[in-house]
Amino acid sequence: MSNDTPLAFSILTGFLGSGKTTLLNQLVNHGDMANTAVIINEFGEIGLDHMLVESADEDIVVEMSSGCLCCTMRGDLVDTVQGLLARRDAGEIKAFDRIVIETTGLADPAPVLHVAMNHPYLVHRLRLEGVWTTIDTINGEATLDKFAEAVKQAAVADRIILTKTDMLDDNQDAEPLISRLKHLNPTATILNAAEGEANPEALFGCGLYNPQTKSNDVAQWLRTEALEDVDVHHHHDVNRHDDHIKAFCISHDEAIKSNDFNLFIEVLLSTYGANLLRIKGIVKLAEQPDKPVVIHGVQHVFHPPAQLASWPDDDHRTRIVFITKDVDETKLSSLLNSFIGAIDKKAVLEAFEQENPLSLVAGTPIKYK
Question: Which of 20-24, 149-153, 254-258 bottoms out in mean pLDDT, i.e. has the lowest?
Fold first, then answer.
């Protein structure tokens, strides 16, 4: 693979005791993990079956029996990834074409996503394939009740991996947890680790780019159809963390001018910022309506947009999927409609300005190629 071709990277997260280390042990020795580099926090709990490839003061890189590389995350994540890429480019370690990064159990995955999506060097070397989150079926509901971080880990996931289902008592049932997770994050695919579903084939297939077909698979990436099945009558409890999270899709038939879309995003980010947990979308721009733009953001950080050569299917609408915390869907819809021209822009912007006086401060526009 050319150094000019961005490498796919995935993030493995999950709360303390959720079975993340057990899953990693299974993955690093899986035969389909060849050509994968795994960056972990500590080697101690990982069952290494390897040949030593390199040992250095700053980190250690080992090759697993599966053929994948494994290294420790010491110091700054950027330094670890840059060092790994530099050694790959120089031929000092075996070539790999994807990276998996493990976060700590208490970690909000957003900062790791921000680094990879916004760092001047990494943004050109990496493309986000997916976020995987492990959920303990025995203690999962209690963890979601108690820790907002666990809720955010599940909310931003592309794959939710249920662990310890084989340890459930006969009188225990995972269905209430599964129902809760489906409402929290309808667009995520739920996998059962005990039944072998959390394998590389299932985990690596959640990005926009499909390496098998060598094309973009927007439909499976956005998964807008999953949002149509959300139970709108779900009981809302203001004291429960995940009842502040909402996933929805805003769509529009009409094209939008690129400058207006930039301002839409600018107002959106400055008004809601960290409450926009994740944003994915395909956008019809007025300047080139036959070549849609794909956007991907985490909170206030956006990956550089990618322009497709053509629409991937017969649906030529702008479709933007949001996963948000305490954000009103109707306000975002009104904001987009105002920039498209469907409703009065001035009135909508004045309302946003009253909500947040900084909302109209100019920022760095998103560049389209």
Answer: 20-24
